[in-house]
Amino acid sequence: MRQDDEGPVAADALDRVTWALRRTESAVQALKEQRLRPLGMAAAHYSLLMRVHADPGLTGAELARRLNVTPQAVASLVARLEDRGQLERRPHPRHRHVQELHLTDAGQDALRVADAVVAEIEQQITDKLGPEDAARLTALLGQAADAVRET
Amino acid sequence: MRQDDEGPVAADALDRVTWALRRTESAVQALKEQRLRPLGMAAAHYSLLMRVHADPGLTGAELARRLNVTPQAVASLVARLEDRGQLERRPHPRHRHVQELHLTDAGQDALRVADAVVAEIEQQITDKLGPEDAARLTALLGQAADAVRET
DNA sequence: TGGCTACTGTCAAACGTTTGATACGTGCCC
DNA sequence: GGGCACGTATCAAACGTTTGACAGTAGCCA
């Protein structure tokens, strides 16, 4: 009988899906940061602006949930983006002290420029994999995310 | 002629591979943190221990490069793990003030317990996708990482 | 041998995020 | 209508990381 039955610290742990996921995401994020920095925009800013662009009128708390960060982190980013004139906080029609988030025209412009950079990275991956494998990768990632959330 | 020719902020930006990658990685990391916390170990600690387990004798700087973090972050984690008696810093045979990193027996045990949790999450994903799709996902992630690094 | 270069490790400070706690406004149920 | 629960927003403090700068050591070449 082997004595590692309880778990030999899996020698193939570095071949796992979760490990590959971590490495790839890390590489993509690093490249994104690197190319976004010259434009004066952090990756977190881009993600937030894109989210607000997709769902205008979001509240800070709701935005925090969708980005998987805390409301305080969102508030910090929003304050900065508002100072730059890229984001706007409007009073909510029903709730008085709730603020709706909307992109300004300047925010739209900044997002368009930043998105070109991200789209280029996306293209880089799509070129390497081909259209069908890229679509398959996206689908598989979606299934993996579902598997994790179904806990 | 449409005026968005320069880029309409891609309405399908949320269907991108990079976006799916971000969401999935975030979900996996969140679950990992959640299940590792009761064991008194952060995800960053697990990653570091697993790396040292795979390549014993690594230096802090080399470890930092492989984990995509700064040497200072590694030094901070190493100090804590050393205090817990899970990690050991031995003098490098050739370079005098260079420290080699090795797991202690206690470190091995802690890693084994933590790895069981991570392996369970891996299994959760593999069960959902099936063996062949899981392998395909890993392969596609590897190709995507290569595409990004080939810049 | 002397000096240059590259790599490693550590210190100090700034930044961003999380954690914890508090106050305000709304909607629901008794 | 009064009271309770939920969601939102904000403040203060602790934590972890990055950025920037510095000292020590080994390898290389003139």
Automatic annotation (TrEMBL), chains A, B:
Gene3D superfamilies the UniProt entry points to: Winged helix-like DNA-binding domain superfamily/Winged helix DNA-binding domain (1.10.10.10)
Domain HTH marR-type: 14-146
InterPro entries per record: HTH_MarR-typ, MarR/SlyA-like, WH-like_DNA-bd_sf, WH_DNA-bd_sf
Signal peptide from the UniProt entry: none
Superkingdom of origin organism: Bacteria
Name of this protein: MarR family transcriptional regulator
Organism encoding this protein: Actinoallomurus vinaceus
